[in-house]
UniProtKB/TrEMBL annotation:
<keyword id="KW-1133">Transmembrane helix</keyword>
<protein>
    <recommendedName>
        <fullName>YiaAB two helix domain-containing protein</fullName>
    </recommendedName>
</protein>
<dbReference type="Pfam" id="PF05360">
    <property type="entry name" value="YiaAB"/>
</dbReference>
<feature type="transmembrane region" description="Helical">
    <location>
        <begin position="12"/>
        <end position="37"/>
    </location>
</feature>
<feature type="domain" description="YiaAB two helix">
    <location>
        <begin position="16"/>
        <end position="68"/>
    </location>
</feature>
<dbReference type="InterPro" id="IPR038972">
    <property type="entry name" value="YiaA-like"/>
</dbReference>
<dbReference type="GO" id="GO:0006974">
    <property type="term" value="P:DNA damage response"/>
</dbReference>
<keyword id="KW-0472">Membrane</keyword>
<dbReference type="InterPro" id="IPR008024">
    <property type="entry name" value="YiaAB"/>
</dbReference>
<keyword id="KW-0812">Transmembrane</keyword>
<dbReference type="GO" id="GO:0005886">
    <property type="term" value="C:plasma membrane"/>
</dbReference>
<feature type="transmembrane region" description="Helical">
    <location>
        <begin position="43"/>
        <end position="63"/>
    </location>
</feature>
């Protein structure tokens, strides 16, 4: 098996997960506080809050779609690799050709 055929495994460490979660929480809290103390009318605050909520949900959706696409690609590669390995295992180069 070649190095290209192996799928790289990149498990997320606990430290990286914690950093990402804390970073997301700080950004979301900062944005919420910024919108709350903004010296504008309440309808402007509501508009900005809805926009921020939409941005957050769109980011989660995009992350899920990217992850799902990567998982689908990985599974397809595994299936293709298994088919090739099966064909190679069943192939007998010394068998007479049957026409």
């Amino acid at each position: 098996m070649t190095a290209d055929a192996k799928t790289p495994s990149s498990p997320t460490t606990a430290a990286f997960f914690a950093q990402a979660a804390i970073s997301f929480a700080i950004a979301l809290v900062s944005l919420t506080i910024g919108i709350a103390v903004l010296p504008v009318d309440p309808w402007v605050r509501a508009f900005l809050a809805v926009g921020a909520l939409y941005t957050v949900t769109a980011a989660f959706t995009l992350a899920k779609v990217v992850r799902d696409r990567q998982e689908d690609t990985t599974v397809a590669r595994r299936v293709d690799r298994a088919r090739v390995e099966k064909l190679l295992a069943e192939h007998d180069p010394f068998a007479p050709n049957a026409l």
